[in-house]
Design brief:
homodimer, 417 residues, alpha/beta, Carbamate kinase, VC0802-like, eight-stranded mixed β-sheet, disordered N terminus
């Protein structure tokens, strides 16, 4: 039986990340899993990443030549990592008696735009894949890569193999796509911090998108956005066992009964505050344009206006980016005549759930739990399905546990009041 | 000035083997050489092999999966080796300020038949390469690989990168193609054995073909045959210095003045003799068919017929193949009712030269030199431009030096008598 209850599933697309294909033995284990799925009567497409540290080693080789290689050549280089895995995976399947064929992106017309190192997929020649599936073969597709109209190799950026997984599944109309990782699924919180964290059976695309942004590293946002767009359910599960993992699916009405699906901690945050900023149009745009030009990724932004017609602009960044951000902001403040302060000891705790849209009292419950423990909230940001609070880093893990308990996330979900 | 005296050469195709591109520093050195050629006003195409031991490592990875992987997948795997080199080489050129672009076989339509692991080239899309050359770029082409009409990756077999070199040069009408290796060129004999050996300035395709078969490892026969077919001169030279190497060219009349161009020693030979073989049609065919089916590569064959209507069939094999050959032959002799003997201590000394066609006394001079030193000749085989003798292995190196001296190969060539 498949996770969504169908027993006559005809096409499974399964993706294995770098750690799942790190050596010959692990590759054979993946092949056995695909064969097991074949034996249940499914057609199988495998999407694979580069073996273990292969990509890092290729990057290191390029950097021995120059610090910023031309992106076209970088893509041509990095794509070899997945090409190695697909051919070896096809060999492993054949060695076990399962006919198989490997494909690079070029060989199945996985056409992208020409934005090297972060290309966007345009189309896939699914006819070629279908022909091989119908001939009884397992098809092994190189993740992460694409090819331009002109035949140049591209790569899809971070999380690119998951984008390939979803794109292949969508174009073939797969019944489910399975994302094999080294975790059992998506948890209500990081089990290393919250021992009572529980694996979630189902979660919506939007919840997954929020949790990814908040520090859950299982699925990259671009893949989830793609899955949402084409309504492809993703089964996040472990390559080490046969347990059911977490299904990432489109929202259905019954899911609103679950107010909060998960909680997340983003540790190692810093906050930059510009005060006495002239409150005139274009100033904020100039600030964030300058930060973007300096390749600084800004997390949350809060702006308030004081009575003296000046504004205070705060934003958070990863602690590792604080040094770069400080240089840019201090130079900006010289030009704008404003003041800057920098805090390096912050963390963000968030709760996420589609049920927030229809249920009240979520924020109150979260703030009360933190207040009762004497944890001071320094900033609040919200979306339709998320509440985040900025607190001191030392209190981050305690706060995550408190919030997780307050919403009883460790218990199986039940209908909300 | 180029080796053949032209100073307005417009297109150079240069090939660098695995040892010349084994690490980032060596790759940069190759890039500097290409740039130097650009600065002399030439357009430059580079053909490169996989870095150092990369191909061996990929083979080892495949063998961790299975001993005889499907050939299509093996080609898909091995082709990544050259793809890594082309992209890194293009980076190295760009890092030095030289615009460059890398191409896999698929990207320049280097179409082959579909005989995986030893495919034959059918055509090249030279328009694509020319467009990039005319735009001022150095074009870096992956050696050893091709692509079928259907888009599958193929490889060209042993010496395949040299086939790519010659094919690219032929299709673009290059003025010369340069084969960079770790030796200075082709020598009159192996300098490690014959200290007086001299680098040959010019040699014909046919002489090179004979010498390759006789143990000179610089250029594989298929590349030389290709060069001969399309009349592409090959300049064999060192990647470690700027010395002129050896030009492999079509035969011209003046080359007949050189009676012997080189001498070679093939060490570690064994001889298998089948005696009392029934002398009827098809027996020899059966013997050599059985050997071929056992993947045993036979060197020279000699058959003599005795008065009693039985034949004696002798052939030489590499010593490393003697064990396999013995098994096959002993089983054959059971069936045919003949006797077999095996000798494992032989070597072959040969002299090669197009001048033999028009000059007499070459064989006599060779045999006399060996006889004077008490070296017994056990077999003689000849072609139009080659004489080979089979002798005891212990006498092989001495025999090579004697023959080299007898033909005065250490001295610059002069008109024959």
């Amino acid at each position: 039986m498949s996770p969504d209850g169908k027993s006559d599933m005809s096409l499974v697309v399964m993706k294995f990340g770098g750690s799942s294909v790190a050596d010959a033995e692990k590759i054979k284990a993946c092949a056995r899993r695909a064969i097991a799925s074949r034996q249940q009567g499914h057609q199988v497409v495998m999407v694979v990443s580069a073996m273990g540290d292969a990509t890092d080693e290729l990057v290191e080789l390029a950097h021995q030549i120059m610090p910023s290689p031309p992106k076209r050549e970088m893509d041509q280089l990095l794509a070899t990592g997945e090409q190695v895995t697909v051919s070896v995976m096809a060999m492993a399947l054949e060695a076990l008696g399962q006919p198989a064929i490997s494909f690079t992106a070029g060989q199945i017309g996985m056409v992208t735009d020409d934005v090297h190192t972060k290309a966007r997929l345009k189309r896939i020649d699914q006819a070629r894949i279908k022909r091989e599936l119908d001939a009884g073969r397992v098809v092994v597709v190189a993740g992460f890569q694409g090819v331009t109209e002109d035949g140049a190799v591209t790569t899809l950026g971070r999380g690119g193999s998951n984008v390939t997984l979803v794109a292949v599944a969508a174009s073939l109309g797969a019944d489910v796509c399975e994302n094999y990782t080294d975790v059992d699924g998506i948890y209500t919180a990081d089990p290393r911090i919250v021992p009572t964290a529980r694996k979630v059976d189902r979660m919506t695309y939007d919840e997954m998108l929020e949790l990814s942004s908040l520090g859950a590293n299982v699925l990259h946002n671009r893949a989830v956005e793609f899955a949402k767009k084409y309504n492809v359910p993703i089964h996040v599960r472990s390559s080490l066992n046969n347990n059911e993992g977490t299904m990432i699916v489109a929202e259905t009405q019954d899911m609103e009964h679950i107010v909060v699906s998960g909680a997340a901690l983003k540790d190692k945050l810093a906050r930059v505050t510009l005060s006495k900023v002239p409150d005139k149009p274009g100033t904020a745009a100039r600030i964030f344009h300058t930060l973007a030009a300096g390749n600084i990724v800004v997390d949350d932004i809060i702006q308030t206006t004081a009575e003296d017609k000046t504004a205070t602009v705060s934003f958070t960044v990863e602690l590792s980016e604080l040094g770069d951000a400080r240089k840019v902001v201090e130079s900006l403040c010289c030009d704008l005549g404003c003041q800057s302060t920098f805090e390096d000891n912050l963390a963000k705790v968030s709760v996420v759930g589609v049920g927030m849209r229809v249920h009240t009292g979520v924020a109150e419950k979260m703030f009360s739990a933190l207040a009762a423990a004497g944890i001071n909230i320094q900033n609040i940001t919200t979306s339709e399905i998320k509440i985040s609070v900025l607190i001191n880093r030392e209190q981050g893990k305690d706060a995550l546990r408190l919030v997780h308990d307050a919403f009883e996330l460790g218990k199986p979900p039940r209908k909300a009041k």
